Amino acid sequence: MTTRFLWEGFRLLQEIHDDVPLTYVYSDAESYEPLARIDGTKDPDIFWFHCQPNGTPERMTDREGHIRWEGQNSAWGKLLHESIPQETGYAQNLRMQGQYLDRETGLHYNLFRYYDPDSARFTQQDPIGLAGGINLYAYAPNPLTWIDPLGLARCEAGVASGKGSNINGKWLKGSHGNAGLFPSSVADKLRGRQFKSFDDFRESFWKEVANDTHLSRQFSPSNISRMKGGKAPIAHNSQWNGKNRSYVLHHRTPIQHGGGVYDVDNILIVTPRYHLDILDRTYHF
C-alpha cells in the first residue's frame, strides 16, 4: 500500500492510502488538536477524536458513539497501551499536537524534527537555536499544558500581565541597541489579552512596537516593515549570534524556575549576542 500525505500549511490535512483519503478536521482554524477524521469520499466513515487537555487523542468513536480506537499514553506522549475494539480499516497515528507516529521506528514526526517519546526529547537540535529555548532537545517543561506542534518552540496559552516600564528617552540601550525593558505603552495594549502561544504574544508585541512612534524611531524602515508583519527586527551585525540575527524576548526568570511566560515584567528585549552573554548555564540550562 502506498501512503501519501497532503498538508494545509503546517498541518496534516490528509493521508491517502492508495486512492482512499483520510481527511483531518481540527478544533479551530489555528489549532492542531484533532476533532474528526473522515475516511473516504463516497459514503465516508466519520470518526470523532476525544482528546486530553493537551490535545493528545485518547479515544476515537464512530457516529454511533462506539469506541473504534483507544490509547493510554504516558505524560510525555509514549503510547503505553492501544486497543481497537472495532477496526476502522486504518491505524490511528496522531499523537501530541502536531505529531504523527512512525510505527516502524516508534518516533513521532513533529514537522521540523522527530520526537522520541521514550526519552521525552527531540532527536535533533532545535532548528531555530536558542530562540526555542535553552535546551536544544527539550520538548517542554510541562507536557500537560505546553505544546510544540512544529517542533520549533514550545508554547502555552495564557493571559498577558504586568505593568512594564516607562520609556522616556532611548528605549534600547547600549552601543548597538543591546537591550531594553518591556515598555509600559505596549504592556497597556497587551495586558489582559489571551494568547494561544508565546509565538502569538511575540508577534503582537512587535506589531505594537511598530505602531508606537516613540519606540519605532530606533529602527530602519525595513525593520519597521518586519515588525508590522509580526516579525522581530534584525539587530546590528555586531550583535548577531551565528544565524540568529533578530531581537529576542528573554525571560529574566526562566520558565522552568517559575518565571511567568506572559508576565511582561519578566521579559527583556535583547539582541542575539547579548542574549548569549547573559545566559547563566547553571541557572538557565
Structure explained in plain terms:
The chain has 285 residues and is an alpha+beta fold. The chain has two domains: 3-93, no CATH class; 157-284, Colicin/pyocin, DNase domain (Colicin E7 immunity protein, Chain B, fragment: Endonuclease domain, Alpha-Beta Complex). Helices cover 15% and strands 26% of the residues. The chain is built from six helices and 17 strands. The chain has an eight-stranded antiparallel sheet, with no helix packed on it. Strand 5 and strand 6 form a beta hairpin. Helix 2 (198-211) crosses helix 4. The longest helix is centred in the C-terminal third of the chain and has 14 residues, at 198-211. The mean pLDDT is 89.
Number of domains: 2
**Which strand order does the major sheet show?**
1-2-3-4-5-6-7-8
Low-confidence stretches: none
CATH topology of the largest domain: Colicin E7 immunity protein, Chain B, fragment: Endonuclease domain
How many helix segments?
A: 6
Largest beta-sheet details: 8 strands, antiparallel
Q: In the CATH classification, which architecture of the largest domain applies?
A: Alpha-Beta Complex
Q: Tell me the span between the first and last alpha carbons.
A: 45 Å
Question: Averaging pLDDT over every residue, what do you get?
Answer: 89
CATH superfamily of the largest domain: Colicin/pyocin, DNase domain
Number of DSSP strand runs: 17
What characteristic shape results from the CA principal axes? elongated
Explain briefly what this protein structure is.
Helix content is 15%, strand content 26%.
Give me the secondary-structure topology.
Blueprint: E1 3-8, E2 11-17, E3 20-26, E4 34-39, E5 45-51, E6 57-61, E7 67-73, E8 79-83, E9 100-101, E10 108-109, E11 114-116, E12 121-122, E13 158-159, E14 179-181, H1 184-190, E15 194-195, H2 198-211, H3 213-216, H4 221-228, E16 248-251, E17 267-270, H5 272-278, H6 281-284
Antiparallel strand pairs: 1-2, 2-3, 3-4, 4-5, 5-6, 6-7, 7-8, 9-10, 10-11, 11-12, 13-15, 14-17, 16-17
